[in-house]
Structures are given as structure tokens and as C-alpha cells.
Design brief:
The chain has helices at residues 18-29, 34-46, 52-63, 70-88, 97-104, 118-127, 144-155, 169-178, 203-208; strands at residues 5-8, 110-117, 136-140, 162-166, 181-185, 196-197. It is α/β, with parallel strands linked by helices and 211 residues long. It has two domains: 5-16 and 93-208, Rossmann fold; 18-88, DNA polymerase, domain 1. Helix 6 links the parallel strand 2 (110-117) and strand 3 (136-140). Helix 1 (18-29) runs antiparallel to helix 2, helix 1 runs antiparallel to helix 4 (70-88) and helix 2 packs across helix 3 (52-63). It is globular. The termini are close together.
Amino acid sequence: MPIQCLVFDCDGVILDSVPIKTRAFARLAEPYGEQARDRLVMYHAAHGGVSRYKKFEWFFREVLGQDITPEQSDEWGRLFAKYALDEVRVCDLIPGVQDVLDAWRGRLPLYVCSGAPQEELDFVFRQRHLDVYFKGIHGSPPAKAPLLAEIVKTTALLSQNVLMVGDSVTDRDAAEYAGTRFYAVGEQLRGGNFPWGADLTGLNEWLELNV
């Protein structure tokens, strides 16, 4: 089935922002000790694409042994943005993504499907003048899988004609849930039964053969 729509995760696929957000998680958990910090960082690394608020909930429940209150969740969200947002606004793009956006803008509808909060995504993409490339920029809530399914629904295309480009197990699982094709980026997903690249430098060539 030919690819007729491209959907991109953000962190690690468009923006080289994963290390920035990893540092922000580490800084949040630092006051609770080295072991607590390392557990949150490992959980974050293993659950890319999951909302940061779900990770906060996990940390409070599994590491601190208590339920996070709405006030604590809001405060951690505020601190996370404070620690990360300035760097995300100016961080590098993932190699190859600018060429992909330039090549397919106007030829295929392009979307963003991210676990980052919607308001933050809108702000960052406007600040970086990336919003002009996309027909839709979508963040959490909801979770990645139903979000991708909803994007596919809005395109009125068959799901098999939509390509999800992602760098995490969450992205791969969302593609499976929504029935889309999947292009994997980064070391975490190397060796799967789907096309793969260390970054996006090979995506244009792959797309030319599959559109």
C-alpha cells in the first residue's frame, strides 16, 4: 500500500530533545536520593512517548509509595517545563528531518503525534517555525495509541496508507494499535521487523520507493 500520510513523534524524531528531558526528570527526582533519581531516569528511558504526568504518577506510587496529588502533579509539570523548555526551544533537529520536511511538505499531509503536552508542543513548534510544515500537531492527552488512531481517522485514509515515524516502543505499539505502517528511528528499536534508521537521513530514499 502506498504511503499517503506521514505522522512523526517529536522528541528523538524531530527534535534532539530526549537528553534534555532526561536531565529534567533526573533533576526532579534528585531531592529523593540517587537511587530514586536513577529509577525515574530508567523508567523514563524505557517508556519514551508516554506522558510525563504518567511518569510522575509512577514515581510517586512505585518509588515514594504514595499517590501523587493534583497539586503535586501540577508543580512537577511546572518545574519540568522550567528545567527543559528553554533548551528544547533551541536544541538541534534530528539529522535528516529538515530534508524530509522540505521534501514532502505540500506532497503529503504531515502530522505530529507526541506524548508532550499540547500547549507546550504548540509553543515550541511556533517558536521554531516548524508549525508551517504540519497539517496537525497533536499532543497529550490522550495517550499515544488512541491519539494516532484519531489522527488516522481525520485523514479519511486507510490506516495502511499512513506511516508513523517513531523512536520508542510506545510509538511502535501505537502504530500497531492504529494499524499504520511504522518507520523506526534510533538504537532502541534496531533489529525489528520494520524499516529502521539511526536518524532520518535515510527516510527520503525509503519514502521515494514507498509512495
